[in-house]
Amino acid sequence: MAANARPVSTRLASSPSQSPAPSAPSLVLLALLPIILSLLFLTFLALQNLLPRSFTLSLPFPFSLLIPQKLGGYSHKTSVESLHHTLTSLSAYRSSQQSSLSAKKRSFRTLGSTGKRYAQALGYQAKLEEITRASATNADLVDGLIGLGKRDFEGGWGWRKGAGGGRPEPGRVIEMLKHFVRDWSTEGVRERSALFTPILSQLEDLYPSMDNFERDNLRILVPGCGLGRLAYEISDLGFDVDANDYSYFIASRLIFKHTESINEHRIFPNIHSFSHHRTAQDMIREVRFPDVLPKPTLLSFQPGDFLELYRQPEVYDAVVTLFFIDTAQDIVGYLETIYRALKPGGYWINEGPLLWAGNPRMECSLDEVLHLARMIGFEQLDLRSVDSDYTGTLDGLFRYIYEAQYWVMIKPKLTLPDSDVVDPPSSSSSSSL
Ligand SMILES: C[S@@+](CC[C@H](N)C(=O)[O-])C[C@H]1O[C@@H](n2cnc3c(N)ncnc32)[C@H](O)[C@@H]1O
Q1: Which of 68, 244, 346, 403 could staple 385 via S-S, CB 3.0–4.6 A?
Q2: Overall number of domains in the chain
Q3: Mutation test of ligand 1: which of 169, 190, 247, 334 has the most ligand atoms closer than 8 Å to its C-beta?
Q4: What CATH number does residue 384 fall under?
Q5: Pocket lining: 289 vs ligand 1, CB cutoff 6 Å
Q6: How far apart are CA 289 and CA 252, in angstroms?
């Protein structure tokens, strides 16, 4: 190469001071880039809410967290926290059961020799061993749920055992096992037929002459759906159902996505307490589930906080709440969300107790809840009591019966006259409480 010849690469690598200044149009473009990207993102969000759900896209984690509305996917911060907490609690189940059984066995060993001989005659030690085996069977199912959660939710949305997820609550896992019984086993028929029948026949009465084709134009929301059996039964009548819960979605996925045959799964839901059993066998009774294989229906699961997911007005023809409204930290927010989500002329069907838990802002009596609903704009069509237990043990010596309150309300088609709808008191009249 001649001494004065300059390789092209040298020119490209020359210092910035030597590079030509960017042209004015490209500087403008650069400055506008964040705005253009934001506009594209907003268009994407808007399209997501306009398109039919089958066309919606879901972004991979962690980008999915950026999406504030339902996208036919698992996009919500609350869902992530809930999933992590569920996985943490599931992962504590086996060891917590082992230690509680060890404590029982230690206590038994302190029995005197005469007592032990009687216990032997009763088969008590054998029962303890059976409970130990049953507990291991439960723990195997629970481990399966952890695997499912990690597999189906992109590595459990970043969950790692022992890191985050809050304080493990194995008691919630026991509740989950009982919900499998309530929703998906033949043992749950008593509770389901007491509670589901009024709701399902109400929906059939409200939309009587429709065949399934017409019903699939009617959208029904079931917030706090638990393991989804009621939502499934409603969809099986032909309605288009959105089932929402911020917990339990690993468990419902087991039923809806990972079950191939009736009674494929087995658990021992009664081993967690030695109290109130009629027979020793009742405690170690195996329960199989599911009692049906869900058919394909118009049912979509939407994990997340109901208050955050359903802000869009006038989407649903009916909202069905079962043992749900008393989970509210903010009952006003719950009722307003239900009211707003309903189309004019839409129905709210509720059934459940008023068992306020946690530290809600208001803990209303029945008359207060009904009054509140009327102030928000609902018109009450029906009100009665339905007796039922909730995740009760079949044939147990203890039953906790709720006088669940069943009501139907309508969001009137026309705005009510001012005298019927009460505006919330203005802030100037609020008390110092
Ligand atoms: C008492 S359980 C009832 C479950 C089901 N409806 C049944 O009757 O079996 C209440 C349910 O509401 C859910 N939940 C509570 N607050 C919620 C919220 N803000 N958004 C969505 N789900 C919620 C809980 O995870 C739980 O599954």
Answers
A1: 403
A2: 1
A3: 247
A4: 3.40.50.150
A5: no
A6: 12
